[in-house]
Amino acid sequence: MAAAASSALHAVGAVASAKPRSVAPAVATRRSVRVAPAAKRGPGSGGGRLVARSAVAAKADEAAAAAGSKSGGHELLMFEALREALIEEMNLDPTVCVMGEDVGHYGGSYKVTKGLAEMFGDLRVLDTPIAENSFTGMGVGAAMKGLRPVVEGMNMGFLLLAYNQISNNCGMLHYTSGGQFKIPVVIRGPGGVGRQLGAEHSQRLESYFQSIPGLQMVACSTPYNAKGLMKAAIRSENPVVLFEHVLLYNLKEKIPDEEYICCLEEAEMVRPGEHVTILTYSRMRYHVMQAAKTLVNKGYDPEVIDIRSLKPFDLHTIGNSIKKTHRVLIVEECMRTGGIGASLRSAIIDNFWDYLDAPIMCLSSQDVPTPYAATLEDATVVQPAQIVAAVEQICQ
């Protein structure tokens, strides 16, 4: 296995030296639009409180959206937006490559890599054996050698087999090598509670990976931010885990024709409001927005934020909202015990306790394996009616 992995890595590494036409300008273009750091710590920011923030990426995001609306843009499903991001980045930078099970001529389980093998060849779109620990480790090694691998987990639950590579290698090698190695690798794939996929295919691994030092985590929820986050993750010098939800791949949206990127450390204001801050991400964004319609009819004005960056949290955007509404509801599909909501609640208490007029509420999935039966599956995850009831309780 080690010899096979070494041989495959050597083959993928050959891509970096096989430069296509106009490589230099393309790479220069990629670097010229690299995402700026999203947050800075000022002197006297005791307790790690975020006190200042760069607006470069936010302005670029808004400008791209405005440009898209003027030019009309084009409609894409979310899996097509992810695919478009991969194609653009692979055209711009010959060091970007893709590896995983069935990512090549089959096009991936959800067709995110459909047609890429024909466009870029079998060395840059590498079909691997069913061995997540091996090909994830190979991706880390490729990143150490100067490539920018995108590693696909056919299902996020399977990446538990590569937990050692993600934790001890991806997250720590930059530190343990004394900065000699960078690990610009993207680990992505479908996860979340689907439609009767059973317990082992309904994992939400954000709760597993959030405590690993050195990793960044983002969760896409729309075709627009799926493409923008994918491009930013590929360009990042850090290892990034991109969470995609299995039920959102067929979501359709118009996105700009012009190139754009989203900041990896920035939340998205979905709906401004005055009465309560609702923090959510991924598929739960749509349950929250469904609940918001009912809440507005009942006289409430919720502010909805897609936190999007699961690590680190965008405490600037979150804090500004809390200072306005003074009430917080967290809605997640992750499990209650040790989930993203628990970490987010702790961060809010540490940084914005004085601004809260009510206890923070958190709606999470039940701490049970996800059942196969549809009615039981629905009972384990948060539903819009529960969100409405929670807001009414908070605002009493």
Content of β-strand: 15-25%
Classify the helix fraction into a percent range.
Answer: 40-55%
**What structural category characterises the helix and strand content?**
alpha/beta
Radius of gyration: 21 Å
User: Mind summarizing the main beta sheet?
Assistant: 7 strands, mixed
Strand segment tally: 16
- Based on CA inertia axes, which overall geometry fits? globular
Number of helices: 15
Distance between the termini: 62 Å
Mean pLDDT, all residues: 85
In spatial order, strands of the major sheet run 5-4-6-7-9-8-14
Uncertain parts: 1-60
**CATH H level, superfamily name of the largest domain:** Thiamin diphosphate (ThDP)-binding fold, Pyr/PP domains
Give the CATH architecture of the largest domain: 3-Layer(aba) Sandwich
Protein model, in words:
- This protein has 396 residues and is α/β, with parallel strands linked by helices.
- It folds into two domains: 75-256, Thiamin diphosphate (ThDP)-binding fold, Pyr/PP domains (Rossmann fold), CATH 3.40.50.970; 268-395, 3-Layer(aba) Sandwich (Rossmann fold), CATH 3.40.50.
- Helices cover 40% and strands 18% of the residues.
- The protein has 15 helices and 16 strands.
- The strands form four sheets. A seven-stranded mixed sheet has the order 5-4-6-7-9-8-14, sandwiched between helices. A five-stranded mixed sheet has the order 11-13-12-15-16, with helices on both faces.
- Helix 4 runs parallel beside helix 10.
- The longest helix has 16 residues, at 2-17.
- It is globular and about 60 Å long.
- The N and C termini lie far apart (62 Å).
- The relative contact order is 0.12.
- The model is unreliable at 1-60 (pLDDT under 50).
